[in-house]
Task: inverse folding
């Protein structure tokens, strides 16, 4: 079981930021990653559709007998974590949302936390609920930033248009006295620099990808499931479609050349 | 047969610009529209996936026995029009791409035509091939504008960021002496004003939605299939998912309140 892989899935390639964070936190582990690139994005879709997709994605990873499943998709974490838990039996499950919420609740000093994400994540108020389950004193202020994903994927990392859009999206939320801001979408670490510059140095950025990697290390340690010897360093990649830009995007997210990718059908 | 509906499909809601153009050109006709909102966008996906989706979309419309099928999706028009034709028997099929190409070839005076669209449409060079089939003297210069769809859907119609991005995308193409520019994506008419201002008054904009509406009128007239009495004015809408923003987007695209929508499974 210790040698079993860590299974990670996302609606597309955004979850690669989680792969990168898990590699950094757990360098001995094998990783299997499924990106549902044929049906990306989940964010704007309805809850019924998102829950169906979450079951499919879990079933896909279960073929590889993972020792833990990480839901790298904020939308699924927000709307369908129970479906993932039901579909995978006794294996532990962790998601970017709960992990990000835990870390934010620990870090905030003035109990005012901002959350940015897709429209679906923000409308669900799932971060707010998760943070208030830990500490109901914390006030959570959310803002949807729908253009951040396409801007990240277009590589407009440091573009004046990205700065203008960030300024517009973040104006209100930063005026509300938050001391902590959760990047509630796996794409947003790509735009971290612009976001940091826009909100200023007083606000601590919480990257849910880092948070879930740390949480995974805790869970595997508790269960005695850490790998004891170094395994393959490149992740095993499964995708439901191979988009034209995939190799460029892999490099943007991972900072390294793309390994072989396996095309699977959901 | 004359009373049968006109079937129109698109990967999502972008094809509503075609619905609007067809309503204007053929006010007596009944329209049935299918938007594959569960699997939108097609643009960044692979050709195999796009061809599979095109067959599904055609089958969906065929249940309603349309007298003609309009492919309102540029990506499907570019990569899978033959699949649509094979899947619908003897019914005439027309697509935004061929219609836009025909009109551009008629309008250009200096035989230099620009085309803007999604990455998939532009990479396929399908507009270039279609235009050169009509007149091989015409030089076609293309540019992918991946951020135009999310900007349109976010309602950033007249936003400074949209102007900056348009200036960047269109700088090269407008310096190449084109006198005609094809909007090769159904979303782009929403941003027509910014695009027109960016390219200047010397360049004639061709809207593929208008072009395919005119072509549909020609085909129905030739086949003696025009409706002779006024039918329902609101289109019958089918979608594979009902996104949260659908009603806002319907209003953005159609300029009127959203009618009832039928949720279907593909």
Result:
């Amino acid at each position: 079981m210790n040698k079993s892989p860590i299974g990670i899935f996302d609606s597309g390639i955004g979850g690669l930021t989680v792969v990168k964070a898990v590699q950094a936190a757990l360098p001995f582990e094998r990783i299997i990653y499924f990106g549902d690139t044929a049906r990306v994005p989940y964010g704007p879709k309805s809850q019924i559709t998102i829950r169906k997709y979450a079951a499919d994605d879990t079933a896909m990873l279960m073929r590889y007998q993972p020792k833990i499943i990480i839901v790298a998709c904020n939308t699924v974490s927000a709307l369908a974590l129970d479906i993932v838990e039901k579909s995978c039996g006794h294996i532990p499950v962790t998601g970017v949302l709960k992990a990000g919420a835990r870390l934010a609740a620990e870090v905030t000093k003035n109990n005012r936390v901002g959350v940015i994400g897709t429209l679906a994540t923000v409308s669900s108020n799932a971060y707010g609920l998760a943070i208030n389950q830990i500490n109901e004193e914390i006030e959570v202020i959310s803002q949807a930033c729908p253009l951040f994903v396409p801007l990240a994927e277009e590589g407009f990392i440091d573009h004046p248009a990205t700065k203008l859009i960030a300024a517009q999206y973040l104006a209100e939320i930063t005026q509300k006295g938050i001391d902590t801001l959760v990047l509630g979408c796996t794409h947003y670490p790509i735009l971290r620099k612009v976001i940091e510059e826009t909100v200023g140095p007083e606000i601590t950025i919480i990257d849910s990808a880092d948070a879930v990697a740390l949480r995974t290390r805790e869970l595997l340690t508790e269960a005695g499931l850490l790998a004891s010897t170094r395994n393959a360093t490149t992740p095993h990649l499964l995708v439901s479609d191979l988009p034209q830009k995939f190799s460029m995007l892999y490099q943007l997210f991972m900072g390294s050349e793309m390994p072989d990718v396996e095309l699977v059908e959901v």
About this structure: The CA atoms of residues 44 and 56 of chain A lie 18 Å apart. The radius of gyration of chain A is 17 Å.
